[in-house]
Amino acid sequence: MCKVNIYITLKEAVLDPQGKVISQSLKDLEYDGVRDVRTGKYLQVELADRENAEQKIEDMCNRLLANPVIEDYTYTIEEVV
Amino acid sequence: MCKVNIYITLKEAVLDPQGKVISQSLKDLEYDGVRDVRTGKYLQVELADRENAEQKIEDMCNRLLANPVIEDYTYTIEEVV
Q1: CB contact under 8 A, B22 and A65
Q2: For chain A, what is the domain count?
Q3: Minimal Cα–Cα distance from A62 to chain B, Å?
Q4: Does B50 contact A at CB distance below 8 Å?
Q5: A8: domain CATH number?
Q6: ipTM confidence
Q7: Cβ-proximal residues to A50 (8 Å cutoff; 6+ apart), any chain
Q8: Partners of B44 in beta bridges
Q9: What is the nearest CA distance from A70 to chain B, expressed in angstroms?
Q10: Mind listing the pLDDT tens digit of every residue in chain A (81 residues)?
Q11: A52: domain range?
Q12: Which residues in chain A are contacts of B4 at CB distance < 8 A?
């Protein structure tokens, strides 16, 4: 079994209005040091099998989990014994 | 300046219907090895100042970014020169 952590973020060039709102809200709460906030998604996927996990995960991201046109993704895999 | 990555997840005991849907969709796409999917949020926050960053971030999470009743959060801080 293995656990995969997937981090999906908007590409640099894509506007992130949700991040802008969070950033402004933090400033309204007097956190003046906040320069920028970008939002993304975090998925924890449990796979039965470590074999070919990289390929499967990339495939899943491209087909369903992320939108490759506007989003980037990275992932880490930890094997669980 | 420092960059903070915040990972917000639902607590173990909290149902995650969105994760269940993703998990089922992946199975429908013939990814049979998928055992479970949990969804979360991923925030990238840029702070002007490294000083007291831990305390500020925890404060932000508790007040605005996460819902401490149903969500857990972790974070990593990287200093940028």
Answers
A1: yes
A2: 1
A3: 12
A4: no
A5: 3.30.1280.10
A6: 0.92
A7: A1, A2, A77, A79
A8: A38, B5
A9: 16
A10: 999 999 999 999 999 999 999 999 999 999 999 999 999 999 999 999 999 999 999 999 999 999 999 999 999 999 998
A11: 2-79
A12: none
